[in-house]
Amino acid sequence: MSQEASMFSAADAVVNYGPSSGHEPPVEDLPLPADFAWGTATAAYQIEGGASQDGKGKSIWDTYSHLEPSHTNGENADISCDHYNRMPEDVELMNSLGVDVYRFSISWSRVIPLGGRNDPVNEKGVAFYNGLIDRLLAHGIAPVVTLYHWDAPQEIYNRYGAFLNTEEFRADFERYARLCFTRFGDRVKKWVTFNEPYIISIFAHLNGTLAPGHCREAGTDTKTEPWRVGHTIILSHAAVVDMYAQDFGPSQKGDISIVLNGHFYEPYDAASPADRDAAERRMVFYMGWFADPVLLGTDYPAEMRAYLGARLPEFTADERALLRRTAPINAFYGMNHYSTKYARALSEPPAADDWTGNIEESSVNSEGKETGPVSGLGWLRVAPSGFRKLLNWVWKRYRVPIIITENGCPCPGEDDVVTAVDDKFRQRYLGLYLDAISRAIYEDGVVVKGYYVWSLMDNYEWSAGYSARFGIVHVDFKTLQRTPKNSAYYLRDTFRSRRKAAS
Ligand code: PNW
Predict the structure, then answer these.
(1) Measuring from atom 9 of ligand 1, which residue has the nearest CA?
(2) Rounded to two decimals, what is the model's pTM?
(3) Which of 23, 27, 121, 492 makes the best surface tag, with the fewest CB within 10 Å?
(4) CB-side neighbour CA atoms (13 Å) of 333
(5) What is the CATH number of the domain that holds 263?
(6) pLDDT tens string 308-350
(7) What's the CA-to-centroid distance between 309 and ligand 1, angstroms?
(8) Handedness of CA 359, 360, 361, 365 (dihedral sign)
(9) Which residue's CA is the nearest one to ligand 1's atom 7?
């Protein structure tokens, strides 16, 4: 299995203390702007539970997490954190931590159980999100709402393959978005259309480690389908941005954009021009794939067109006009960022379905140097200097304010509840990554507006099930009791003092 394919697998979650490089600087608690927003982030399928409660329809994750043999560590999220039934307690918790923002996602099949544009609305599902939004606002917490965090209604997958059919998906997604803007947009002022299109395209439709695990099915084409999925996401995003700007923006006055994830890539051998080029190309293939059409309103990056040829779909003249028109409306670059990797140019011919630009990724470079100490997951290493470089890379290419919409880590040894609550590894990781933001802002001139930690609480980590804990709040999955970890108090206090220092 490639390193990418294994990213979400349970095997990756094996505790590994790894060699600490010992070279990381201490946390300096550097200042942040007075109006810098701090928040927590979650996703519907990972925390809600209530899998079939109050008329909710099935999503592709309800199906995928029940496959036999299991692809999800033998675990599903039928109950998970039971947030659907404990929402008031969770909002109280956030209030006690002093957060400004809560980023959550709406479960499409909870509000439109069958998902399609002519299918009925589930008013009980709508009422749940109305209750959540009202409660947040009553505590002065701003909701940031993601429309799609990986849980497509199962029925639209059955009908036409969901993302595999651009026209059908786009029409159904437009109707779902319109429903959300109509019902929630009077109070929600920040919208995200899609969470991590790269992961949806590659992990869910090429490696098959996430739902629907499409490449596992007969008759699939991994050479072209991931790029079709990406194309569907870009056009559905642009259509919804256009709709928001025309029909809702003038009265609701909110912001809308997309959330992209990506590592920073360093060359495997810094002296090799081919590896330096590979590191740059890897980021273009990862983030530029979506950010160029969405934020610049241009075609896919030229490097991708040259490499992928006919595997990459074309935009029609109308679609190009849509991209150009909507690009400047996107109000921010939503960045999910966790770690840094090395990129090495390969000389042997790539596999027919290669998606990397013929590059090998690793955590160790040609001199044997690691990107950083390993967290509770093998791929996630502490590398704050790469984060600062990525902030610069994105700012230079797109010149749009950046919001860190996810960042965080599981600690080594976190299965043990004492380690979990006294989470020094995580506090250090978060502290160093916040220092990197401060340097990017004050030393490099990058505009960064906010930081939402992943995640509010331990939850269902997709294919890894409950084996990887990203929360700043511990969840006992037997009793469902929540206990803030020390990092929760660290973030509460550091934002208080860092921002005071800045003002
Ligand atoms: C994100 N990577 O996924 C998702 O948005 C969350 O739902 C998830 O729980 C969280 O990160 C932690 O995994 C990513 O390898 C997973 O670069 C992997 C990567 C990026 C994002």
Answers:
(1) 461
(2) 0.96
(3) 23
(4) 30
(5) 3.20.20.80
(6) 999 999 999 999 999 999 999 999 999 999 999 999 999 999 9
(7) 29
(8) negative
(9) 43
Q: What angle do CA 476, 80, 51 make, to 5 degrees?
A: 155
User: Which residues have a catalytic role annotated?
Assistant: 196, 406
Structural domain that includes position 99: 5-502
Burial class (CB in 10 A: 0-12, 13-18, 19+), 309: exposed
Beta strands in 340-419 (DSSP E): 340-345, 359-362, 402-406
Dig out the tokens for 96 from the structure. 């006690």
Phi (first) and psi of residue 94, to 5 degrees: -60, -40
Residue with tokens 């967290």: 375
List the end-to-end C-alpha distance of the chain, in Å, as a whole number.
49
| pLDDT-based confidence at residue 129 (cuts at 50, 70, 90) | very high
Report how far ligand 1's centroid is from the alpha carbon of 461 (Å): 9
Q: Residues near 442 by Cβ (< 8 Å), separated by ≥ 6?
A: 30, 31
SS3 state at 234: helix
Number of domains in the chain: 1
